[in-house]
Predict the structure.
Amino acid sequence: MTQPDPLTELRAAIEAAGTQTRFAEDSGFPQSYISAVMREERPPSDKLLSYLGLKRIVIRAEDAA
């Protein structure tokens, strides 16, 4: 089972909205934030992930010592 990629999901949501600006307006996120996430300058927030139907999962490796 593959995990969904947040940027792929965001691209699909933007495409469905028609434009990045329209997606930002419809979702309530600042357009500058959406643009920064798309350029991978900022990570997607938990709020954005939730909007996209995703959830952040953190897996920590145990110390080898």
Summary: DSSP finds four helices and no strands in the chain. The chain has one domain: 6-51. Helices lie at 6-17, 20-27, 31-38, 46-51. Residues 29 and 48 are 8 Å apart (CA to CA).
